[in-house]
Amino acid sequence: MVPAVVLPAAAPASAAPAAAAAPAAEVTASYNVWVWNVAGWKMHRGATGNGLVAALANSIRNRSAHFAALNELCWSQYKAVQSNLRGSGWPQDVENFSRFEAHNETACGGEPFGVAIFSRAPMGPADRLALAPDGSSERRKLLCAPLEARPHLRFCTTHITPSNEVIGGGKINERQLGEVLTRVESYHAAGDTVIVAGDFNAQPNYGRMNPWYSRNLDVPRNSGNQGDYRELDDTDPASPGYGETTVADGDTSGPDGQGKKIDMIFVRENRIVGTYTGDSLAISTSCGGACSDHRILIGTVTVRITT
């Protein structure tokens, strides 16, 4: 017997069918990301002519970076990097390809000290989020800006406090990490793809990074994760889930006795298309010695972007 077919009741003639929401249009694009904590005052005392600016600008060019982030940078160094990159074809309008945010207005011998972002393509207006104070003279920030032509793609940098002090009922480093994650997730909720690079002052396997790292990442060197983000160096074959060291401060608490990793590039897992890579570069010695006590971290990722 052929089963009976039950037809839905006809809608009243006056009722219009509900319109289905059109899915947001997307494009995919690949980006090379570059980040370095340059110790601009601690090791260079704000110098611009000792090889630091040339070393970092040459590395940005040599790695074909689309985005670059700098931590612990003095204002004069920021302006020198602007000039150097502009001279090699980065956007001529300086207001459109770089942003600076001070953590202290006078910490570089009377000049501002802070973080900066650069983009090979013009950027739109920046957001500047002050993080919870850590009791020091430095007010740390999250600095983000979208691309002018792709406003749903944002590039951010931050430098989380190294302090583990309990302030206001909780550890201040955990609070700052939570504030940054909350803001980045609010961008995601608004349809944005976010790339955030900086010095997180925490190793990948630390518990305070579990809200960041994807719950799909569960390996001996990085487990217990509850988040949605991948760090572009977490597929390093020599240290899966952790990555390569990014500092040279004598601390060998990383896996297998390697130096620790605290500089990172994060992208939300559900915005990544295909594979991604990260790498930590040897510290240049072209500054009359080591140019920093941190290594440059680079990464390449393809992402989905709402148009």
Put the structure in a nutshell.
This protein is of the alpha+beta class. Helices cover about 15% and strands about 30% of the residues.
Describe it:
This protein has a single domain, classed as 4-Layer Sandwich (Deoxyribonuclease I, Chain A), CATH 3.60.10.10. The chain contains four helices and 14 strands. A hairpin with a 2-residue loop joins strand 8 and strand 9. Helix 1 (52-62) crosses helix 2 (75-86). With 307 residues, it is an alpha+beta fold. It has a six-stranded mixed sheet with strand order 3-4-2-1-14-13. The chain has a six-stranded mixed sheet with strand order 5-6-7-10-12-11, covered by helices on one side. Strands 8-9 form a two-stranded antiparallel sheet. The longest helix has 18 residues, at 172-189. It has helices spanning 52-62, 75-86, 94-97, 172-189; strands at 26-37, 67-74, 98-108, 111-119, 127-130, 141-146, 153-159, 166-167, 170-171, 193-199, 229-231, 263-268, 277-280, 297-306. It is globular and about 55 Å long.
